[in-house]
Design goal:
The complex is a heterodimer.
Chain A: H1 2-29, H2 37-45, H3 51-85, H4 97-111, H5 117-141, H6 148-172, H7 176-183, H8 192-211, H9 213-221, H10 223-228, H11 233-255, H12 261-273, H13 277-301, H14 310-328, H15 330-333
Helix pairs in contact in A: 1-13, 2-3, 3-8, 3-9, 3-11, 3-12, 3-13, 4-5, 4-6, 4-7, 4-11, 5-6, 5-11, 6-7, 8-11, 9-13, 12-13
Chain B: H1 4-30, H2 38-45, H3 51-86, H4 98-112, H5 120-143, E1 144-145, E2 149-150, H6 152-176, H7 179-189, H8 198-217, H9 219-225, H10 229-235, H11 239-261, H12 267-279, H13 283-308, H14 316-334
Antiparallel strand pairs in B: 1-2
The chains are: A mainly alpha, B mainly alpha.
């Protein structure tokens, strides 16, 4: 039985990887500048130079690699959140993490205008941790905890608050432009240097999450059972929390706001992968990467040569999903 | 039968609020970057001011204060109605996406129509209403349970989803717009009182004159709606018709307000709640208080926002969010 499951998982995994490779080439080949599949191929396989090929190497390639890692990171973060809180509506964007990172970014830009990229990334970690602690802290203040519905409302309120803090700081210090470049920039202008800072965090976060996927599965079923099975609840919770912060903070540092993707992808993956997080997490990572690649390609081509921010496309696709989950799980959520 | 002492208390609170409102208006008139000092206010109003003083007072500050008063009142009533018909304390036009719906409609309107034409001001509340109305229809549709009718919690949850996605849609529209229009829409989103000129007052005033008294007259029916559905039906209230009429008025008030103030949230939450805390849940008693409070809160928020930073104003929407969001959390924890 177990063997069957892992064999069928292997097929699904291979399919997902193929999908990812396909979307990656699609993303590399389409865009405002005219490129052909041949150019892409040359850029990867040879040392040949040329305007188009350089463009692919220096602009499009880092950008799409950024999309891959951010898509994977946010999806895994969403999946871990959903498992940890047993809340089908959990998402880093909905529960105040990204707006926390925004507020912190605004503060750092205001106080230390010369902070380097590494410092900004650390600021994002601290900010998203603060946002998450606020939301979950509010949830924990109520006896018996909050229902998923109330957690989302608390998230909306905390987000509105932190967003107002971020806007206020940026207006006071006249740094709106710099801040919005960070928070609304999307994947525009992702450079190799930025990737070098952010990608290690994401890779480490995803690796640790895979390592703890078995515990996460038990957690997602029932906390009492987890305790009964001898799980060290506080330690595991802390580790999972740190994973969420690492992944979300790194993503915000690279692309700014991006809600709903962490909500959507795990829900798309679950019917395929089942309830076992050993399967959900890897598939979420790969599907999330493909999803963001495709969304970004859409954003670059819908209204070319102007860009439609990818965050907006994701948010727009996310709404039907959100409604669907609310409809399907109606009673349990509220 | 309402006990006379309660009515007396309500009158007293109304009086205090009126005085506070007047104080806020005077403070708002006297404070600002280009100063018209307080002791020059009365001479200027009587027509003895310099040209500059008159200009600042009558063309900049006075219309702005009237706008914030009217919009605050409208938002307060809109929130109160939403809370009554959804039987959910947390319902508020900003939270459940009505503001965002109005915003998207306005943004689209801006893309296709020139900003500078004089007539467009008067279309704005109507455009905002259409956007907000469509949003409200969708939100209601998705929050109706087959068995039990409108589900109050789901209404709020679906609304939060809508407001997120519509903000996303707004960014899409932004990205397609010209530079100058982008700045405008960005300011609108932050809740900057942008329509601070007399035409905007004339544009939203009719909506206020029609809908505010309309709601006050209906406050008894709102009381009945607050009861459980079978009881309301038993008393002889056609609850569906009543709900739709009230929802429409709520949407109309909120969209007229935000069409000129920008996306200001949480006033519709704060004002009715404070009012209920003061005089209890009877609509005929607390609605007038909520109206005065709404005007007061938004005027204060705007005056604070205008004066807190040396040169650049903080939009009123930010100030209300900083005050309103913690209050929202408090409500979440309380019930």
């Amino acid at each position: 039985m177990i063997k069957n499951a892992s064999v069928s998982f292997l097929y699904k995994f291979i399919f997902a990887v193929l999908l990812l490779i396909g979307s990656f080439f699609l993303a590399m080949a389409f865009g405002a500048a005219d490129t052909s599949v041949k150019d892409v191929w040359l850029a990867f396989t040879t040392y040949e130079a040329g305007e188009t090929i350089d463009m692919i190497r220096e602009i499009r390639l880092p950008r799409e690699i950024g999309a891959v890692f951010v898509g994977a990171a946010l999806s895994v973060a969403g999946a871990v959140m959903q498992g940890l809180t047993r809340n089908p509506l959990a998402d880093p964007g909905l529960l105040g993490l990204t707006s926390g990172a925004n507020a912190m970014l605004a503060l750092v830009i205001a106080l230390f205008p010369h902070a380097n990229y590494f410092g900004m990334t650390i600021a994002c970690f601290i900010g998203s941790a603060a946002g998450a602690l606020l939301v979950f802290g509010i949830g924990a203040m109520k006896k018996g905890g909050f229902s998923p519905f109330r957690i989302v409302l608390a998230g909306a309120a905390v987000s509105a608050f932190l967003q107002a803090v971020a806007d206020g700081i940026s207006l006071l210090f006249k740094i709106s432009k710099d801040v919005s470049m960070w928070t609304a920039g999307g994947l525009i202008g992702v450079s190799w240097k930025q990737l070098g800072v952010v990608v290690p965090f994401i890779v480490i976060g995803i690796m640790i999450s895979f390592f703890f996927s078995r515990q996460l599965t038990i957690f997602s079923l029932n906390e009492e059972i987890a305790a009964g099975l001898g799980q060290k609840i506080p330690q595991i919770k802390t580790v999972l929390f740190i994973i969420i912060i690492l992944l979300t903070g790194a993503s915000v540092a690279l692309v700014g706001n991006m809600a709903f993707i962490g909500l959507m992808v795990p829900h798309i993956v679950r019917p395929i992968a089942g309830a076992d997080y050993r399967y959900i997490l890897p598939l979420s990572a790969i599907f999330g990467a493909s999803f963001l690649l495709i969304a970004d390609t859409l954003g670059r081509t819908i209204n070319a040569p102007y860009e439609t921010p990818v965050a907006a496309i994701v948010a727009f696709l996310g709404l039907p999903f959100f409604l669907f989950i609310v409809q399907k799980r109606g009673k349990a959520i509220i | 039968m309402i006990h006379p002492s309660v009515i007396k208390k309500q009158r007293r609170i109304m009086l205090v609020l009126l005085i506070l409102n007047i104080a806020a208006i005077i403070a708002g008139l006297g404070l600002g970057t280009s100063s018209v000092s307080f002791n020059r206010l009365i001479p200027t109003i009587l027509g003895q001011g310099t040209f500059k003083e008159e200009f600042v007072l009558f063309s900049i500050r006075l219309p702005r204060i009237i706008i914030t008063l009217l919009a605050g009142m409208a938002l307060a009533v809109s929130g109160a109605i939403l809370q009554e018909i959804s039987k959910n304390d947390l319902a508020e036009p900003g939270i459940i996406g009505i503001n965002a719906g109005a915003g998207v409609a306005i943004a689209i309107f801006f893309l296709f129509f020139p900003i500078d034409s004089g007539l467009f001001v008067y279309f704005l509340p109507a455009v905002a209403f259409i956007g907000a109305f469509i949003t409200a229809v969708f939100i209601s549709f998705f929050s109706i349970d087959k068995k039990s009718g409108l589900n109050p919690n789901r209404l709020v949850l679906v609304g939060v989803g809508f407001s997120m996605a519509l903000s996303g849609a707004m960014i899409v529209i932004l990205s397609a717009a010209e530079r100058q229009k982008v700045d405008f829409i960005a300011k609108w989103l932050a809740g900057n009182i942008w329509g601070a000129d007399w035409p905007f007052i004339w544009a939203i005033l009719p909506w206020m004159i029609i809908f505010l008294p309309f709601i006050l007259v209906r406050s008894q029916r709102l009381n009945l709606l607050g009861l459980s559905d079978p009881v309301s039906i038993g008393i002889g209230l056609s609850i569906h018709k009543e709900r739709i009429i009230l929802l429409l008025s709520s949407v109309a008030l909120a969209s007229a307000a935000v069409s000129v103030t920008g996306s200001v949230a949480f006033i519709g939450l704060l004002a009715p709640h404070i009012a209920r805390g003061l005089v209890g849940p009877r609509n005929q008693l607390y609605l007038p208080i909520a109206i005065l409070l709404g005007g007061l809160l938004l005027t204060l928020a705007d005056t604070i926002g205008r004066n807190i930073a040396a040169s650049d104003a903080i939009p009123a929407g930010i100030v209300t969010a900083l005050i309103g969001a913690p209050y929202f959390v408090y409500l979440l924890l309380k019930n």
